[in-house]
Structures are given as C-alpha cells and as structure tokens.
Amino acid sequence: MQPAIAVRDLTKKYEEGAAGTLALRGVDLDVLPGELLMLVGPSGSGKTTLLSIMGCILTATSGSVRVAGKEVVGLRENQLPALRLEHIGFVFQGFNLFPTLTAGENVELMLDLKGVSAAKAKKRAQELLEQVGLGGKYASFPADLSGGQKQRVAIARALAGDPGIILADEPTAALDSHTGRNVMEMMTELAHQRGRAVVIVTHDSRVLPFADRIVKIEDGAIAAPENGSVRPGLLEGHLPQAAVGLA
Ligand SMILES: Nc1ncnc2c1ncn2[C@@H]1O[C@H](COP(=O)(O)OP(=O)(O)OP(=O)(O)O)[C@@H](O)[C@H]1O
Ligand SMILES: [Mg+2]
C-alpha cells in the first residue's frame, strides 16, 4: 500500500537567532491510509514542525516528504497551498478561526477555495457542523463559542474538503472528556471506515488508547524501538487508568 505520507531523512532548521534551531534532525516516518497515528513527545521536540511540513504549511530544509505520492521538499512556499487544499485537512494547535466570520462561514471558506458553489458550500457547512454537534451554531461568531466549540468548528473546517489526510495538533487539549471522546471517535471513524490517514499530535494521555500506532519524537528525532513505533499501552505505565477519562 502506498503511504499517504512518506517522510525520509527530514531536517528542518529555523534560521532565527545566531545559531538557528535544528528542530528536526533526520526523521523517517510513513503514514498509511486507514491508520490513526499519534505523535507524542516533550514540548519543543518538533511535533508541530513535523506536522506542519507534512501538512504543506511549512517548507523543509532537507530530506524527502511525499504527500499522496508527490514530493513536496524543494517546492516553493507559493506552491504549497494548492497541494494542501487538495489533500490535507489541518486542525491547528490554537483553532485559527477567522474572528470576523461566523462558524458556518469559517467552514465554507475551505469550500469556496475549492470552487464549490455558495449554495452547496452552505449546505455542506451545515451538515459538517451538525456532525460535530454544532447544528445550531452556524451563525455564531468564534468569540461567542466555548473553547470546545471552537475546536469543533476547526475540525469541521478541516474536514470540509473531504481530504485524504487529516493532521491535528492537540485537538483535544481544550476539550472536556466527553467532547474529547467524541472528537476521537470521529477521527477513528475517518481512519477506519473512510480510509483516511490521520495524524494527531497530543499531550493528552486520555486519547492514546485510540491510536493504532504511537510514535515518539524527542529532540527532533524519532525515539522508539523498531521502526519508530510502539504499540498503545507500551508507552506509559499509567495508560489503562488514564484511558478511563475518555472511555
Ligand atoms: N517559527 C519558529 N522560529 C524559530 N524556532 C522555532 C519556530 N517554531 C518552532 N521553533 C523551535 O523549534 C523547536 C521545535 O518546536 P515545535 O513547535 O515543533 O515543538 P512541539 O513539539 O510542537 O512543542 P509543543 O509541545 O510545545 O507544542 C523548538 O526548539 C522551537 O523553539
Ligand atoms: Mg506544538
């Protein structure tokens, strides 16, 4: 099976500061269609950097990243949005909603960019908001929504274009257990029933039991036994108990 994302010997150096920061140092990772992969690791280890490069939001310094079979390393920044629009749904670490647009319009924006007609976009946005439990919030502005509701709008927006790859940075961080579980059930369904490749960055040990595979990143490199992956439950001794919150 062709990976949805294939990362080889990926490095990323941020040039800010005298010496710069080597945020990724030789990462290898495959993400398959139909799997829910979780990326864990300490703060500053490079999780958001890796996710952003896989999501065609950030350019890499060297190595190879194939997204749906297409090499993205070496593309110019202005070549990335088209790829992102075609293949990627991205849920940002801090929601990233447009404050002057309603919840519905935030979702529709993605569809407008894809050339979907206004009427169809509105119908689809309403369906998506219903799916995430926000059927009545189409006309609400982000400022009038709770953290959990904003997160769900961000998820609806990421799913709007029906992307093959869904990347989410801490999608449950702002959510209570019940909402967090709903979000994870939705992500699991996207992977297992609809064959999407789903990558979730998380610090939230309650969601780890939903993973098909957990990859740990430390100091910009994959840190784990055998081919960079560990099975859920092997990673942290307290997992079964932690899982209770979302079970
Ligand atoms: N735009 C940037 N410019 C310069 N350095 C950056 C930038 N973004 C991240 N870094 C640095 O790169 C390293 C990796 O950061 P990154 O945000 O990928 O970590 P993270 O694992 O997502 O952390 P967290 O769990 O806190 O979100 C850190 O040392 C960080 O300070
Ligand atoms: Mg981060």
CATH topology: Rossmann fold
Main sheet attributes: strand count, strand direction, barrel closure: 6 strands, mixed
Number of strands: 10
Name the average pLDDT: 89
| N-to-C CA distance | 32 Å
What ligands can be seen in this structure? adenosine-5'-triphosphate, magnesium ion
Shape: globular
Specify Rg, calculated over alpha carbons: 18 Å
What is the helical fraction, as a range of percent? 25-40%
CATH class annotation: Alpha Beta
- H/E element order: EEEHEEHEHHHEHEEEH
| SS-derived structural category | alpha/beta
Please mark out the parts with pLDDT under 50 across 5 or more consecutive residues, or reply none: 233-247
Short description:
The protein has helices at 47-54, 80-87, 103-113, 118-131, 147-159, 177-192, 239-243, and strands at 5-14, 21-31, 36-40, 62-67, 70-71, 88-91, 165-169, 197-201, 213-218, 221-222. With 247 residues, it is an alpha/beta fold. The two termini are 32 Å apart.
